[in-house]
């Protein structure tokens, strides 16, 4: 259906509501195995009841907050104290076979990844704060990462991580895994303040600078002495300048321009291009001279939260309100080119370099502003007779999001023309109702969940890119999805040392009110907004889960099986994007995408040997209709992206986890893990060359480890390791390199020292990436970064 709109161009919302990898470096693998083989937290005198609990790696002081089927990790203060945590998501950086795609401190595109999850498959991870959903299922890419910013690292009490969709309680977006962040609940009157300062000396191509950042976080907690009420108020102000994320190359051709010097040739990019493994993919091609770096991202974030609690022993409740403001300023592209007078040249036209004519473009200026809110409430009560019930309702709203971008460097510098993409109000609402009975030889749980997602993005053109005054309609995309679900789980205790848990989940999914608007190109609608509406879709899914475990003389064995359905998000179905030249890309989404459907299995074996605990994991996942975002160039050389289904992908792998405490010496704790992952595209008729090739951005090897040592009761030191072998960059496995534009090997050593100067005052200093390893996830990861921190608690 099409309709022409005459008159002013108003937005719709105004009218209606290869399997190839680089070998492990010898020094890297030696260090990795040294840390892993001497590793883990289970004291000999701990009363650990293996037969009564799922395998949980990490802290054991508090129960895990999410149902731990399959591999489960629980992290708390003991682990947090050894981590340089610039942001909340850093607190998980050494978890087994896990990573967060974090490019710099304050990065709002930090997508978590489990095992064989691509670093842009954000819709395959369910993330919650105190049980309230903060996963951004409005889309599925690096732009839709969880809303980590609503929580400051100083208020986190516990991180619980579960790998895979092995509990029927959770929606199919748990196909990769589940993360729940538990914030601190006051036990008495308390207060805290944390102050950080950090610096990253950065050297890459023609960029040579030091980027600074810091934060102030604080809060107070009040607990009623003889009553059920508690209140916690927290806030954080964060500011950081992240290194440039993009580097711009000259495009050969065109007329002559001013003679310039200063361009940089990347030897690694040149080597990849000559070998036919570069982005162009043709043997004998030449890497483009780099003429500029994108402006460093100056990030300013403000976060505030109020948590009201109630607990009278029979009824517990919580009300949570969080606010997050994020501003990303990029107003200083680093121009490498110089004209004959020594003045910087940054593009928007032709230049002549070494007698060859080039076009320089892309060094835009930009500013993004966001205001976001989380409001949630939950209540739980003991109903008697072994029954309990709980209910939760929350909403996350992006009240304002405006992304201003200039049309080139000169426009950015002079306040010229540009573009504006704005969203909001947009967001989601989720609800959860559960009833459980425990006792006897069997436990049973019943529940219902609901979620609603809505997005509406308006793109306009601007005469002055810094102001939305006089904006003119360009395009608009919008749509909604919802899922209504029923589930049940039952556990049968066959013996004190054995049990079986089975579950079933029914999902009813609907996509509706989707469409796009753009300027008409044919009479009589030339230059007028024309809107296309898409037919609604409705699907259902029924997915079982089954898990069994047994304790055989201190060796715990658990086998978990599951099926899961991950329905397409609003963004994949309806949310169009802009091409690299600013025009609307009508092929960037697909309203007919099929749901992802997985079959999963996980075998765990764990045993404690005195002060050491060893855990082995074998996992398998087979996914039909994998939704993948393809990037490329059209016939005019303009960058484009689109979502398509891949018929069949498969991953399997092995994980070894070792934990030790007070071993090999008193006061030392080591947690180390190593994983081998084989993730393949098995069937993809639309691109046969990808079949049998290792899935993009999935390394064959991943190692995370952390060693802590108490030099005294007040002084602790730690050493951390993060390693991933070099993966493929593209689906066909033809793009490989260790430089900008590729996914590379990662090797980072981190260190930290903390001193309790008094009972209340802690002073810390640390460094991440000690060896200054240069790693890439297309964009550059941070280079060596220094941190100093002071923390005070009442």
User: Rounded to an integer, what's the Rg over CA atoms?
Assistant: 27 Å
Assembly annotation: single chain
Number of helices: 5
CATH homologous superfamily - what is it? TonB-dependent receptor, beta-barrel domain
The overall pLDDT average reads 89
Contiguous uncertain segments of 5+ residues:
1-53, 633-638
Assigned CATH class: Mainly Beta
Percent helix: under 10%
CATH architecture descriptor text:
Beta Barrel
CATH topology value: Maltoporin, Chain A
Strand content of the residues, in percent? over 45%
**How many E-type strands?**
45
End-to-end CA span: 64 Å
The coarse silhouette is globular
* Number of structurally distinct domains: 1
Sheet with most strands = 24 strands, antiparallel
Structural class: mainly beta
Blueprint of the fold:
Layout lengths: L25 H12 L18 E3 L13 E4 L1 H4 L17 E4 L9 E4 L10 E5 L2 E2 L22 E8 L13 E7 L6 E15 L2 E17 L5 E14 L4 E3 L1 E2 L6 E2 L6 H9 L14 E4 L3 E15 L3 E16 L3 E2 L1 E2 L5 E2 L3 E5 L2 E5 L5 E19 L2 E20 L2 H6 L3 E6 L2 E12 L4 E21 L9 E24 L2 E22 L9 E6 L2 E16 L2 E12 L3 H5 L2 E2 L5 E2 L10 E14 L2 E22 L5 E23 L6 E16 L17 E10 L4 E10 L21 E11 L4 E8 L7 E2 L1 E2 L4 E9 L1
Parallel strand pairs: 1-2, 5-8, 14-21
Antiparallel strand pairs: 2-7, 3-4, 5-6, 7-8, 9-10, 9-45, 10-11, 11-16, 12-15, 13-22, 15-18, 16-17, 17-23, 19-20, 21-22, 23-24, 24-25, 24-26, 25-27, 26-27, 27-28, 28-29, 29-30, 29-31, 31-32, 32-35, 33-34, 35-36, 36-37, 37-38, 38-39, 39-40, 40-41, 41-42, 42-45, 43-44
Organism: Novosphingobium flavum
GO molecular function, one term: siderophore uptake transmembrane transporter activity
GO biological process, one term: siderophore transmembrane transport
């Amino acid at each position: 259906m099409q309709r022409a709109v005459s008159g002013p161009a108003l937005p719709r919302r105004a009218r209606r509501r290869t399997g190839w990898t680089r070998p492990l470096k010898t020094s890297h693998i030696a260090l990795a195995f040294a840390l892993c083989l001497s590793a883990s937290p289970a004291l000999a005198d701990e009363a650990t009841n293996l037969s009564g609990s799922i395998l949980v790696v990490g802290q054991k002081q508090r129960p895990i907050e999410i149902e731990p089927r399959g591999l489960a990790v629980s992290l708390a203060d003991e682990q947090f104290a050894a981590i340089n945590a610039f942001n909340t998501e850093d607190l998980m950086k050494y978890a087994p076979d896990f990573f967060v795609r974090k490019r710099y401190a304050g990065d709002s595109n930090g997508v978590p990844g489990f095992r064989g999850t691509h670093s842009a498959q954000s819709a395959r991870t369910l993330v919650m704060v105190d049980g309230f959903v903060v996963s951004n299922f409005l889309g599925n890419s690096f732009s839709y990462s969880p809303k980590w910013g609503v929580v400051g690292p100083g208020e986190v009490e516990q991180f619980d991580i579960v790998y895979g969709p092995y509990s029927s309680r959770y929606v199919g977006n748990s196909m990769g895994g589940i993360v729940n962040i538990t914030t601190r609940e006051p036990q008495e009157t308390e207060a805290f303040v944390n102050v950080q300062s950090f610096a990253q000396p950065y050297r890459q191509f023609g960029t040579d600078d030091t980027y600074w950042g810091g934060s102030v976080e604080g809060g107070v907690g009040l607990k009623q002495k003889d009553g059920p009420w508690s209140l916690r108020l927290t806030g954080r102000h964060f500011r950081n300048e992240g290194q440039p994320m993009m580097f711009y190359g000259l495009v050969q051709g065109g007329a002559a321009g001013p003679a310039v010097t200063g361009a940089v040739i990347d030897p690694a990019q040149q080597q990849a291009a000559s070998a036919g493994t570069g982005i162009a993919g043709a043997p004998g091609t030449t890497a483009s001279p780099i003429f500029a770096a994108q402006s460093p991202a100056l990030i300013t974030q403000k976060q505030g939260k109020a948590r009201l609690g109630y607990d009278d022993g029979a009824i517990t409740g919580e009300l949570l309100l969080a606010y997050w403001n994020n501003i990303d300023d990029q107003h200083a592209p680093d121009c490498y080119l110089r004209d004959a007078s020594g003045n910087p040249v940054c593009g928007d036209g032709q230049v002549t370099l070494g007698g060859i004519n080039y076009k320089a473009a892309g060094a835009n200026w930009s500013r993004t502003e966001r205001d976001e809110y989380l409001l949630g409430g939950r209540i739980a009560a003991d109903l008697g007779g072994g029954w309990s019930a709980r209910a939760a309702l929350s909403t996350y709203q992006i009240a304002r999001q405006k992304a201003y971008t200039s049309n080139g460097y000169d426009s950015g510098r002079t306040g010229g023309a540009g573009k504006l993409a704005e969203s909001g109000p947009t967001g989601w609402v989720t609800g959860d109702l559960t009833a459980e009975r425990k006792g006897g030889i069997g436990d049973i749980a019943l529940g219902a969940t609901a979620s609603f997602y809505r997005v509406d993005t308006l793109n306009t053109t601007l005469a002055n890119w810094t102001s939305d005054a006089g904006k003119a309609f360009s395009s608009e995309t919008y749509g909604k999805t919802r899922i209504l679900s029923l589930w049940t789980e039952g556990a049968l205790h066959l013996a004190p040392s054995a049990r079986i848990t089975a579950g079933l989940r029914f999902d009813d999914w609907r996509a509706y009110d989707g469409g796009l608007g753009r300027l008409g190109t044919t009479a009589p609608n030339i230059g007028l907004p024309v809107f296309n509406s898409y037919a609604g879709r409705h699907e259902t899914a029924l997915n079982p889960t089954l898990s069994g475990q047994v304790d055989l003389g201190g060796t715990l064995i658990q086998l978990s099986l599951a099926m899961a359905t991950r329905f397409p998000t609003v963004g994949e179905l309806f949310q169009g994007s802009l091409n690299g030249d600013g025009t609307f890309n009508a092929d960037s989404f697909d309203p007919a995408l099929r749901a992802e459907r997985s079959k999963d299995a996980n075998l765990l074996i764990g045993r404690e040997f005195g002060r050491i605990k060893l855990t082995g994991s074998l996992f398998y996942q087979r996914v039909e209709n994998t939704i993948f975002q393809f990037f490329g160039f059209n016939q005019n050389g303009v960058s484009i992206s689109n979502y398509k289904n891949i018929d069949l992908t498969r991953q399997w792998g092995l994980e070894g986890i070792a934990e030790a405490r007070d071993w090999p010496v008193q006061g030392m704790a080591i947690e180390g893990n190593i994983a081998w992952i084989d993730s393949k595209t098995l069937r993809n008729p639309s691109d046969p060359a990808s079949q049998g090739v290792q899935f993009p951005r999935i390394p064959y090897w991943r190692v995370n480890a952390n060693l802590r040592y108490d030099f005294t009761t007040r002084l602790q030191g730690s050493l951390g390791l993060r390693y991933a072998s070099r993966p493929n960059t593209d689906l066909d496995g033809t793009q490989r390199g260790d430089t900008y534009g590729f996914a590379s090997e990662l090797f980072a050593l981190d260190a930290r020292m903390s001193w309790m100067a008094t009972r209340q005052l802690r002073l810390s200093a640390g460094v991440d990436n000690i060896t200054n390893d240069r790693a890439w996830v297309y964009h550059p990861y941070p280079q060596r970064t220094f941190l100093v921190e002071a923390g005070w608690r009442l």
